[in-house]
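Q: What structure does this chain adopt?
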Amino acid sequence: MPETFSACQDCLCFCFELGTAFAISLTGQILKVSPTLAEELGYRQAELEDKSLKALLGPEGLTAARAFLSLSETPRTQFAVRLRARGGELIPALLFACRFKDHVKVWVKLGERATERQKRELLIREVHHRIKNNLQGIAGLLYNQALAHPQLKELLETPIRQINAIAQLYSLRSQGQDRVFLCQLCQIIAQAGLSLSQVALTLDIPYLQAIEVQDQEAVSIALVLNELLANAIKHGQGPITLSLRKQAEEAQVRIQNPSPKPPAFDLAQGVGLGTGLQLVKALLPQDGSATLTFAWEAGEMTAALSLRPPLGALCTPKWAIVSGIDFA
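A:
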């Protein structure tokens, strides 16, 4: 019997040395790491040995390991974790733990590591998240200046709205979304515009068609919509409706509000344009994929932005677009 037990122990040690494995004390200290596992994670053995489990396991795995160590009556277990490689990358793995008298041996089955494309996508998401945070920080600083200097409030409201709109667009991108949809831009602009105004706004987007906006033009379209809504809030009277419609091979965003008199400007000729509409005219693509018209009838002003391919492409819907949301 002793010889059989000794042979079993030798076999375990042999497998430990050749495989991906590590040993820990009953208090959670790393006693030994196999050369293979250390190499897979990008470490030298000495860099992990005598360290806490925090050096090797992510938060969820650490909790699971501590739970196993606290249950002395449980001889073996297995659980999924993420192992911490050099550089901070967390690699999925399945651990098989076996309790001995004074230590625990853990055999590791490593999952697939992130591909170069996945790493690049994660990096891009992180960059977008930081851009969003920085933009919101800038908007916050401007808002504090508006509070401290009431005489500048009206002047600062425009850049605050613009920055918040762009920040929300980067927020979408930081969530891993690689496509930008017109319905989302409408919602973003509504929220950004009303953060500085108490005007009642109805967001009316009843269709299920998903309308994708070219990624490189998304910021420009967001700013155009932002200026049109700001113009309606500033110069209109009463509630505003922002609607999205599909018409044949184009999508059209309409911003409608009561107005006592027709517009005193001509967008096509560039006559009588304020700073906001000058920005709108400059941002509109010159390839004919976007057109903007203004119409006044029976005391109501309508700004209609039409988008056609390739700028606005109709595509398969991925979710139901909201309808009839009132921002009052």
